[in-house]
Amino acid sequence: MFKVRTFNQISVKGLDRFPRDCYEVGGDIGHPDAIMLRSHKLQAEEITDEVKAIARAGAGVNNIPLDYCTERGVVVFNTPGANANAVKELVATGMLLASRDIVGGMQYVNGLPVDMDPAEMGKLLEKEKKRFAGIEIKGRTLGVVGLGAIGSKVARMALSMGMDVVGFDPALSVEAAWRLPSDVQRMENIQALLSRSDFVTLHLPVLDSTRHMINAESVSYMRPNACLLNFAREEIVDAMAVLDALEAGKIRCFVTDFPHPKLLNRKDVILMPHIGASTEEAEENCAVMGADQLRAFLDHGNIRNSVNFPTLELERTHGCRIAITNANKPGTLSNILSLIGDSDINVVDMLNKSRNNIAYNLIDVDCEPAAALLDQIAGLDGVVNVRLIAAPQC
Predict the structure, then answer these.
(1) Looking at residue 90, what DSSP letter applies?
(2) Which domains does the chain have, with CATH numbers?
(3) Is the pTM of this model over 0.85?
(4) Collapsing DSSP states into helix, strand and coil, what is residue 336?
(5) SS3 readout for 294-363
(6) Using one digit for the tens of pLDDT, what is the confidence trace for 321-353?
(7) Across-strand partners of 385?
(8) What's the rounded Cα separation, in Å, for the pair 240 and 287?
(9) Cα(260)–Cα(241) distance, rounded to whole angstroms?
(10) Distance of CA 139 to CAs 93, 162, 184, 303, Å?
């Protein structure tokens, strides 16, 4: 029986992925095998010795002590792409709101007297509507920075709306490249993209290389009538640099899901309360993906969409499997295999992959190893943890 502790409110559709005859799931479970959360700021002391994996029902993992987990051999999952459609639709909303003064027009109408004569209201609005006119986005150029699950959907959506699309991604994967529409023109650097775009939308994770990617220098490459949209992460944009650019007329407007006090009550800024993934469907998708990833790991040791471990999936060939995490250094795997061979146990199948300083191994063997052998493997220099995975019961 595996125990999964939840933080925050996780969609029932995700929780129902755990068979109750093999899993105990709840918010008050002690000594869990795994943790599932959304926005809860997870503290190191909440990750007890029994925790083997953590699933974040969302893309960002800033609320999880990642280095601490890696040192402990705890696999951390996220759910990339599960909320992609929700974010894509909000980006479309942001562009449309920024193309005309829709927000200002709505505020103007709602500020009229409630006892105003309807005919007079009609005449007044007909006279004043030119104050809220704008542009159409058809035929404009959208620059998409970050072409992963969300960025590729945004690019495809913009093309369907008649926009031209240019894209830049400093770390475009082969999988992401296949998702990308062929009509998207790839830019060699972000400066080229910024100088070509009427709208710029950001879809990047927070890394040392992306933190404050949009700063005073990069903004200087943007067109004076350009609109910047940030529905990725607050840290990617230097808000004060954008404010200076707005004040100087270097860009036309800023739309963001990450409000800053200095940006409040400006007509050239549209602020949203971090609602990019706040749809019923996105929360369900994230919960289902996170639960499935935890089950695949706990039941079989397989890893997909981890942010600190390598991707590794091995089809079950025999009932007994050993999962081993170790420091990524020469000789460790050979020492492990030597101990298994010395115990007259045959290795039926195996996979070994590494990511940065961590290596992960799945080893299928022809019989159940003795506890003493597992203790010997765990005692090897560089081995972080060892787990015997029996044949799944669910």
Answers:
(1) H
(2) 1-83+278-309 (3.40.50.720), 84-100+135-271 (3.40.50.720), 314-394 (3.30.70.260)
(3) no
(4) helix
(5) HHHHHHHCCECCECCCCCECCCCCCCEEEEEEEECCCCHHHHHHHHHHHCCCCEEEEEEEEECCEEEEEE
(6) 999 999 999 999 999 999 999 999 999 999 999
(7) 325
(8) 35
(9) 12
(10) 17, 6, 14, 43
